[in-house]
């Protein structure tokens, strides 16, 4: 009996399963053979926002191949670096100009089946909220990192 190769069956799922490593099949295969889970240690500023946005398990440093956690931390660290974020003596994170930093993390949304009017309402509500926050804070927007809701 002629059986298909394991790579043919598992190939499309490898990039998702491997997380932090590359997204193409070749790098996924190489990573499977060579790479152990990555040790992720967030900066104090990133750890502050991970805790604040309900990602306590990611805030203390961890071993992970979780694709979403790796992407979230990498994006957050890059954005904090761009604004020159530093922890103040009061435990609040400030940018290089002295403004308090606020991280706005987008949510998954309700799923695939939504009326156009509902989509417009949600976008309008988010824009209003962000406009209000930008008056008082340096806002860092994080996209939703997680499985698709539908």
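Sequence proposed for the structure above (150 residues):
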């Amino acid at each position: 009996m002629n059986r298909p190769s394991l790579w043919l069956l598992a190939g499309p799922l490898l990039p998702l399963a491997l997380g932090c490593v590359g997204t193409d099949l070749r790098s996924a295969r190489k990573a499977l053979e060579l790479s152990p889970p990555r040790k992720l240690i967030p900066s104090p500023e990133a750890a502050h926002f991970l805790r604040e946005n309900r990602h306590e398990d990611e805030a203390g440093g961890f071993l992970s191949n979780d694709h979403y956690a790796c992407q979230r931390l990498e994006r957050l660290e890059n954005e904090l670096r761009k604004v020159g974020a530093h922890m103040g003596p009061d435990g609040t994170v400030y940018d290089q100009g002295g403004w308090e930093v606020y991280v706005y993390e987008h949510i998954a949304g309700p799923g695939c089946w939504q009326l156009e009017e509902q989509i417009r309402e949600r976008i309008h509500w988010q824009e209003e909220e962000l406009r209000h926050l930008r008056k008082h804070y340096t806002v860092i927007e994080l996209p939703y990192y997680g499985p698709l809701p539908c």
